[in-house]
Amino acid sequence: MGFIAGIQYNIRGVALALKTPSLLMLGLIRFAVVLLLALVLSGMVLYWHNDIFSMIWQMPESRWLIWLWHIVSWILTFTLMAFSMLISYLISQIFFCVFIMDYMSRITERMVLGQEAPGAHTSIFGLFLYLILQEIPRAVVPVLISVTLMIIGLFTPVSLVIIGLSAVVAGIFLAWDNTDLVPARRMVPFRERFAFLRKNLFFHIGFGLLFLVPWLNILFLSFAPVGATLYYIEKERKKHGLGFDL
After folding, report:
1. How far apart are CA 124 and CA 182, in angstroms?
2. b/e string for 190-207 if b means 16 or more Cβ within 10 A?
3. 202 torsion bin: left (phi>0), alpha (psi -120 to 50), beta (else)
4. pTM as predicted
5. What pLDDT digit, counting tens, does each position of 140-189 carry?
6. CA 103, CA 32: separation in Å to the nearest integer?
7. Cα separation of 89 and 86, whole Å?
8. CB 108 within 8 A of CB 23
Protein backbone atom coordinates (compact mmCIF):
# COMPACT_ATOMS: atom_id res chain seq x y z
CA MET A 1 0.00 0.00 0.00
CA GLY A 2 1.78 3.09 -1.23
CA PHE A 3 1.22 6.71 -2.10
CA ILE A 4 -2.06 6.27 -4.02
CA ALA A 5 -3.46 4.00 -1.30
CA GLY A 6 -2.84 6.76 1.24
CA ILE A 7 -5.02 9.18 -0.71
CA GLN A 8 -7.68 6.51 -1.25
CA TYR A 9 -7.94 5.59 2.42
CA ASN A 10 -8.27 9.22 3.46
CA ILE A 11 -11.16 9.71 1.03
CA ARG A 12 -12.64 6.35 1.99
CA GLY A 13 -12.65 7.33 5.65
CA VAL A 14 -14.55 10.55 4.95
CA ALA A 15 -17.09 8.64 2.84
CA LEU A 16 -17.70 6.11 5.63
CA ALA A 17 -18.00 8.85 8.28
CA LEU A 18 -20.60 10.71 6.23
CA LYS A 19 -22.74 7.55 6.22
CA THR A 20 -22.33 6.85 9.95
CA PRO A 21 -24.23 9.27 12.27
CA SER A 22 -21.95 8.86 15.31
CA LEU A 23 -18.78 9.40 13.28
CA LEU A 24 -20.36 12.28 11.39
CA MET A 25 -21.31 14.09 14.60
CA LEU A 26 -17.88 13.67 16.17
CA GLY A 27 -16.16 14.75 12.96
CA LEU A 28 -18.38 17.83 12.69
CA ILE A 29 -17.43 18.86 16.22
CA ARG A 30 -13.76 18.69 15.29
CA PHE A 31 -14.52 20.42 11.98
CA ALA A 32 -16.23 23.35 13.74
CA VAL A 33 -13.38 23.90 16.21
CA VAL A 34 -10.62 23.67 13.59
CA LEU A 35 -12.59 25.85 11.15
CA LEU A 36 -13.02 28.62 13.70
CA LEU A 37 -9.33 28.67 14.55
CA ALA A 38 -8.34 28.38 10.88
CA LEU A 39 -10.53 31.35 9.91
CA VAL A 40 -8.82 33.53 12.49
CA LEU A 41 -5.26 32.49 11.57
CA SER A 42 -5.85 32.49 7.80
CA GLY A 43 -7.46 35.90 8.05
CA MET A 44 -4.34 37.22 9.74
CA VAL A 45 -2.16 35.74 6.96
CA LEU A 46 -4.32 37.31 4.24
CA TYR A 47 -4.43 40.68 5.97
CA TRP A 48 -0.65 40.93 6.31
CA HIS A 49 0.43 38.87 3.27
CA ASN A 50 2.14 41.81 1.49
CA ASP A 51 4.04 42.77 4.64
CA ILE A 52 5.10 39.17 5.22
CA PHE A 53 6.46 38.72 1.70
CA SER A 54 8.14 42.14 1.73
CA MET A 55 10.33 40.81 4.53
CA ILE A 56 11.77 38.35 1.99
CA TRP A 57 11.64 40.31 -1.28
CA GLN A 58 10.93 43.99 -1.59
CA MET A 59 8.49 44.87 -4.38
CA PRO A 60 10.61 45.56 -7.50
CA GLU A 61 10.26 48.70 -9.61
CA SER A 62 10.15 46.87 -12.95
CA ARG A 63 6.56 46.25 -14.06
CA TRP A 64 7.58 42.82 -15.43
CA LEU A 65 9.04 41.73 -12.12
CA ILE A 66 6.04 43.08 -10.24
CA TRP A 67 3.87 40.36 -11.81
CA LEU A 68 6.36 37.72 -10.69
CA TRP A 69 6.47 39.31 -7.24
CA HIS A 70 2.69 39.08 -6.88
CA ILE A 71 2.58 35.45 -8.10
CA VAL A 72 5.28 34.31 -5.69
CA SER A 73 3.74 36.29 -2.83
CA TRP A 74 0.40 34.53 -3.30
CA ILE A 75 2.10 31.12 -3.50
CA LEU A 76 3.69 31.90 -0.15
CA THR A 77 0.37 33.14 1.22
CA PHE A 78 -1.47 29.94 0.30
CA THR A 79 1.36 27.90 1.85
CA LEU A 80 1.10 29.91 5.06
CA MET A 81 -2.68 29.43 5.03
CA ALA A 82 -2.16 25.66 4.81
CA PHE A 83 0.19 25.85 7.80
CA SER A 84 -2.27 28.02 9.71
CA MET A 85 -4.83 25.23 9.37
CA LEU A 86 -2.31 22.67 10.58
CA ILE A 87 -1.57 24.88 13.58
CA SER A 88 -5.32 25.19 14.20
CA TYR A 89 -5.51 21.41 14.16
CA LEU A 90 -2.71 21.13 16.74
CA ILE A 91 -4.32 23.70 19.04
CA SER A 92 -7.61 21.81 18.95
CA GLN A 93 -5.72 18.56 19.59
CA ILE A 94 -4.04 19.86 22.71
CA PHE A 95 -7.34 20.88 24.28
CA PHE A 96 -9.78 18.08 23.58
CA CYS A 97 -9.84 16.65 20.07
CA VAL A 98 -7.38 13.85 20.79
CA PHE A 99 -10.11 12.20 22.89
CA ILE A 100 -12.60 12.55 20.03
CA MET A 101 -10.04 11.05 17.63
CA ASP A 102 -9.65 7.99 19.85
CA TYR A 103 -13.42 7.59 20.16
CA MET A 104 -13.85 7.80 16.37
CA SER A 105 -11.15 5.15 16.00
CA ARG A 106 -12.92 2.90 18.52
CA ILE A 107 -16.23 3.20 16.66
CA THR A 108 -14.54 2.36 13.36
CA GLU A 109 -12.78 -0.62 14.93
CA ARG A 110 -16.09 -1.98 16.25
CA MET A 111 -17.70 -1.53 12.83
CA VAL A 112 -14.95 -3.54 11.14
CA LEU A 113 -14.18 -6.20 13.75
CA GLY A 114 -17.52 -6.35 15.56
CA GLN A 115 -15.72 -5.44 18.79
CA GLU A 116 -12.70 -3.55 20.04
CA ALA A 117 -9.50 -5.54 20.12
CA PRO A 118 -8.29 -5.98 23.69
CA GLY A 119 -5.90 -3.30 24.87
CA ALA A 120 -4.01 -2.49 28.02
CA HIS A 121 -6.06 -2.34 31.22
CA THR A 122 -6.09 1.18 32.64
CA SER A 123 -8.55 3.72 34.00
CA ILE A 124 -10.34 6.23 31.79
CA PHE A 125 -8.29 9.04 33.32
CA GLY A 126 -5.07 7.08 32.84
CA LEU A 127 -5.91 6.37 29.20
CA PHE A 128 -6.82 10.02 28.55
CA LEU A 129 -3.53 11.19 30.08
CA TYR A 130 -1.66 8.59 28.05
CA LEU A 131 -3.31 9.76 24.81
CA ILE A 132 -2.48 13.39 25.53
CA LEU A 133 1.16 12.48 26.20
CA GLN A 134 1.28 10.63 22.87
CA GLU A 135 0.62 13.90 21.04
CA ILE A 136 4.02 15.29 22.04
CA PRO A 137 6.27 12.82 20.14
CA ARG A 138 3.60 11.84 17.60
CA ALA A 139 2.34 15.12 16.18
CA VAL A 140 3.03 18.34 18.07
CA VAL A 141 6.84 18.27 18.07
CA PRO A 142 7.25 17.15 14.40
CA VAL A 143 4.80 19.77 13.13
CA LEU A 144 6.37 22.51 15.25
CA ILE A 145 9.76 21.53 13.80
CA SER A 146 8.25 21.79 10.30
CA VAL A 147 6.86 25.25 11.08
CA THR A 148 10.28 26.30 12.41
CA LEU A 149 11.94 25.08 9.20
CA MET A 150 9.37 27.02 7.20
CA ILE A 151 10.14 30.22 9.10
CA ILE A 152 13.88 29.67 8.61
CA GLY A 153 13.23 28.98 4.94
CA LEU A 154 11.60 32.38 4.52
CA PHE A 155 15.04 33.96 4.87
CA THR A 156 17.02 31.65 2.57
CA PRO A 157 17.48 31.66 -1.24
CA VAL A 158 15.65 28.31 -1.55
CA SER A 159 12.78 29.31 0.72
CA LEU A 160 9.99 27.79 -1.40
CA VAL A 161 11.79 24.43 -1.54
CA ILE A 162 12.28 24.33 2.23
CA ILE A 163 8.68 25.42 2.84
CA GLY A 164 7.43 22.67 0.52
CA LEU A 165 9.55 19.99 2.19
CA SER A 166 8.52 21.09 5.67
CA ALA A 167 4.87 20.95 4.59
CA VAL A 168 5.31 17.37 3.38
CA VAL A 169 7.01 16.41 6.66
CA ALA A 170 4.12 17.95 8.61
CA GLY A 171 1.64 15.98 6.48
CA ILE A 172 3.50 12.71 7.14
CA PHE A 173 3.40 13.12 10.90
CA LEU A 174 -0.22 14.26 10.89
CA ALA A 175 -1.03 11.08 8.96
CA TRP A 176 0.89 9.02 11.51
CA ASP A 177 -0.99 10.80 14.28
CA ASN A 178 -4.09 9.02 12.95
CA THR A 179 -2.69 5.62 11.92
CA ASP A 180 -1.05 5.42 15.34
CA LEU A 181 -4.34 5.62 17.24
CA VAL A 182 -4.99 1.87 17.39
CA PRO A 183 -1.48 0.72 18.40
CA ALA A 184 -1.17 3.58 20.89
CA ARG A 185 -4.46 2.56 22.50
CA ARG A 186 -3.11 -0.98 22.81
CA MET A 187 0.01 0.40 24.47
CA VAL A 188 2.35 -0.87 21.73
CA PRO A 189 5.90 0.40 22.47
CA PHE A 190 6.79 3.68 20.78
CA ARG A 191 9.76 2.13 18.95
CA GLU A 192 7.50 -0.39 17.20
CA ARG A 193 4.97 2.26 16.26
CA PHE A 194 7.65 4.52 14.80
CA ALA A 195 9.01 1.54 12.85
CA PHE A 196 5.53 1.13 11.38
CA LEU A 197 5.74 4.72 10.10
CA ARG A 198 9.15 4.11 8.49
CA LYS A 199 8.00 0.92 6.77
CA ASN A 200 4.89 2.58 5.36
CA LEU A 201 6.32 6.02 4.62
CA PHE A 202 4.86 6.43 1.13
CA PHE A 203 1.39 5.58 2.40
CA HIS A 204 1.69 8.32 5.02
CA ILE A 205 2.89 10.80 2.40
CA GLY A 206 -0.22 10.08 0.33
CA PHE A 207 -2.54 10.11 3.35
CA GLY A 208 -1.06 13.40 4.57
CA LEU A 209 -1.05 15.06 1.15
CA LEU A 210 -4.72 16.03 1.46
CA PHE A 211 -3.92 17.76 4.75
CA LEU A 212 -1.89 20.33 2.81
CA VAL A 213 -4.73 21.61 0.60
CA PRO A 214 -6.04 24.86 2.14
CA TRP A 215 -9.64 24.67 3.43
CA LEU A 216 -10.18 21.16 2.04
CA ASN A 217 -7.70 19.90 4.62
CA ILE A 218 -10.03 20.87 7.48
CA LEU A 219 -12.54 18.30 6.24
CA PHE A 220 -9.95 15.53 5.89
CA LEU A 221 -8.30 16.34 9.23
CA SER A 222 -11.69 16.13 10.94
CA PHE A 223 -12.47 12.62 9.70
CA ALA A 224 -8.92 11.24 9.30
CA PRO A 225 -9.14 8.77 12.25
CA VAL A 226 -11.72 6.73 10.31
CA GLY A 227 -9.64 6.08 7.19
CA ALA A 228 -6.45 5.63 9.24
CA THR A 229 -8.12 3.02 11.46
CA LEU A 230 -9.45 1.17 8.41
CA TYR A 231 -5.92 1.09 7.02
CA TYR A 232 -4.26 -0.14 10.22
CA ILE A 233 -6.83 -2.88 10.77
CA GLU A 234 -6.52 -4.06 7.17
CA LYS A 235 -2.73 -4.17 7.47
CA GLU A 236 -3.08 -6.16 10.67
CA ARG A 237 -5.56 -8.63 9.21
CA LYS A 238 -3.50 -9.15 6.04
CA LYS A 239 -0.50 -9.84 8.24
CA HIS A 240 -2.46 -12.71 9.78
CA GLY A 241 -3.91 -13.85 6.44
CA LEU A 242 -7.46 -12.69 7.15
CA GLY A 243 -9.87 -11.01 4.76
CA PHE A 244 -11.28 -7.54 5.05
CA ASP A 245 -14.76 -6.35 4.16
CA LEU A 246 -16.71 -3.24 5.01
Report:
1. 16
2. eeebeebbeebeebbbbb
3. alpha
4. 0.71
5. 667 677 767 766 766 666 667 777 788 888 889 889 989 998 998 888 88
6. 17
7. 5
8. yes
